[in-house]
Specification:
The structure is a homodimer of 452-residue chains. Chain A has 18 helices and 15 strands. Chain A has 452 residues and is an alpha/beta fold. Chain A binds chain B through residues 6-8, 10, 12-13, 79-81, 91, 109-111, 113, 150, 153-154, 172-173, 176-177, 179-182, 375, 378-384, 416, 418-419, 421-422, 424-425, 428, and chain B through 6-8, 10, 12-13, 79-81, 91, 109-111, 113, 150, 153-154, 172-173, 176-177, 179-182, 375, 378-384, 416, 418-419, 421-422, 424-425, 428.
Amino acid sequence: MSKKIPYRTYLSEEQMPKYWYNLRADMKEQHDPYVNPGTMKPIQYEDLLPVFCEELVKQEMNTTERYIAIPEEVREFYKTYRPSPLIRAYNLEKELKTPAKIYYKFEGNNTSGSHKLNSAVAQVYYAKMQGITSLTTETGAGQWGTALSMAAAYFNMPLTVFMVKVSAEQKPYRKAIMETFGAKVIPSPSDTTDSGKAILKADPKTGGSLGCAISEAVEQAVKTPNCRYVLGSVLDQVLLHQAIMGSEAKIAMELLDEYPDVVIGCIGGGSNFGGIISEYMADKLNGRKCPRFIAVEPASCPSLTRGKYAYDFCDTGKITPLAKMYTLGSGFKPSPIHAGGLRYHGDAPIVCNLAAEGLIEARAYYQNECFEAARLFLSTEGFLPAPETSHAIKAVIDLAKEAAPGSVITFLYSGHGLLDLASYEAYLKGGLTNFELPQEDIDTALKDCPEI
Amino acid sequence: MSKKIPYRTYLSEEQMPKYWYNLRADMKEQHDPYVNPGTMKPIQYEDLLPVFCEELVKQEMNTTERYIAIPEEVREFYKTYRPSPLIRAYNLEKELKTPAKIYYKFEGNNTSGSHKLNSAVAQVYYAKMQGITSLTTETGAGQWGTALSMAAAYFNMPLTVFMVKVSAEQKPYRKAIMETFGAKVIPSPSDTTDSGKAILKADPKTGGSLGCAISEAVEQAVKTPNCRYVLGSVLDQVLLHQAIMGSEAKIAMELLDEYPDVVIGCIGGGSNFGGIISEYMADKLNGRKCPRFIAVEPASCPSLTRGKYAYDFCDTGKITPLAKMYTLGSGFKPSPIHAGGLRYHGDAPIVCNLAAEGLIEARAYYQNECFEAARLFLSTEGFLPAPETSHAIKAVIDLAKEAAPGSVITFLYSGHGLLDLASYEAYLKGGLTNFELPQEDIDTALKDCPEI
């Protein structure tokens, strides 16, 4: 009889990865370059320096180095909440009567509540090293803003978070925790920036949008001396930092003598999915035994399953570079689903490239079935998933029901839902809509995609 | 040079305690017995059976068995979130420039958010085994109600939680999470019980109180066939279950070759303090090397530091048994501080007995200094403490500042504050009062203590 696998497996500090695995070094074809919205030519190293700090621009451009050393100070911070546990979902398996083994990498164990912290700490650290004296960012659902506030507090770095106004009103606890960490939270649009003022003038009652918050954050970063803007998803550098989740998961699975048949993560911008697949995708790219990869998105914002693979703006304000990605159109207005972190019109170029090559699969689900899956997970595994994470769980449950005996499903539990309880309340009251997205809406939004 | 101690130490599943340590077996004198409010005579085994389930009554009365086996099913549940980590507070030490080593046993890693789950799961399990078909309880701050809802969901046990009305209104997320777990949450006072109706008739606008919620929960349990009432603190059985925290902490500290000079916990009813001291107190009771023990309470509800050691009712409604304890009077109306879980007029009889014997010390702090300590902890250690837990942290910081080189401070981090963010918001706005408790108020409330 084989040894009983524990509920939770932790690596020791010595077993923790000392490098971020850089997936691009193993990709046969790199994703098409970002394009400067002014010149419509590929972005150069110098173009990015006023916005991002130097070391991060280097990482953004680094497609050749397979392993990039994690700085000592970042590794020390990681040790305060990493390695995250790899958990065997015994109780969920039992409930589903599945013959499959289910594992999840659990990123809900830090105070900010999600995997976003893995990149936040790296970005704040590099800014600090460069002598940057303040940072700006935007946040919609709030996970990224919270994570960055936490990292900024640790490194004593002043931070301004432009938070989508309607989100700041709906999620007062998210705003409160960022402020408790010492961050300045400004509901967006605001009168502190020109772009904010312009939007307010056009529509004084607007609840704001992520695109608008990005515009304000970038504007303040560029106008403030020695200030930089930081972003929590989509970028290559973010996926690089998030690769630590996949590396840890692989080491832990090896300790248990397990190898997944399928790896699953939800997808909004791609930071968590890109992170969990990392070293398993390396197996695939190098022709070794490998799992299936499934990205799960909301049916109301189905960029991978129904989007067009084309160059598009990364923001609705059209001030950021353009990226080649599966997109619903930068002007796409997502339905107000509760998984706010999955409401992005595109996806990380790295992930889109893998999708275009047929190396990953994608699925889309409605929000009610995801909340139902989350509640089953809560009553069996005891963890309350973020609405975003519930999408991955729904796919896991579907796959587990039809799984072959002994097959292994691994997924990323990207964050907890303790600050999203208003969503659960609304779900319990039966008031959530399963938004159908008319093809017409996609077609209309895509008309704005420039020809490149 | 000695081996570097990791940030976090986890026991393996094999190293986890298989027994609850029963402190009473080592106490030279037992605390005075509970007294029946009807007969004013010591409570007998039979008196408790209509209220609590059988196995728990046995545990309540068991003063001789040093180790009580944890049932297999409870140990399986424990494995889903235990052992909790023992964390070395390197970053806090650095910030304080203390020569002391600080460790904390971290109980904030389960979805219910606190140590309360340790007893909740045991109580639900024994009820299930006895064939009980529903449970009732009350909750004020919400930690206990959340923990019990989580345990009840796992064992598929219907649960009604009477939640102090003002708390249900102030903490909608607490109510939402209990409902997501499937519990029925009734703001108290309600019109579902006679006691609730009577209180509403007398004062239709009342925000309720813990005493009133207890009355409603007990009434429903007694009137409903095959239903029992469960309680999350004060009782001997609760401290027994919570002893697992002290046992785990001691095993982990031994693995690190460490022994504390002082053990600290906050105290409301005594469930977390009684739990963390457990096996270290055994050392003291058996004349071995031992630490100091410090219980930390709010200055606005100072039962241990300013209360009278006397028999008193455990509830304001005077329907529960009387206990010999340090009390501020059962009619004492605590100031509306944010550490709702520390607003109890008495303390666990076991803890009071130890205090009366001079075996533990007590300190009291104001809420603003506790929130300040919590914020320092958040920015260094990265964890947002519950307002209750912040009291322990304040004491730790004070002790660390005056500590001798190499001394070791261990404390219990009883729960996280993610569902208490409204408190932090109020603190940041500078709106919190440091309530002074006039001696007169205590004297008046104590007049109600019966002579026994």
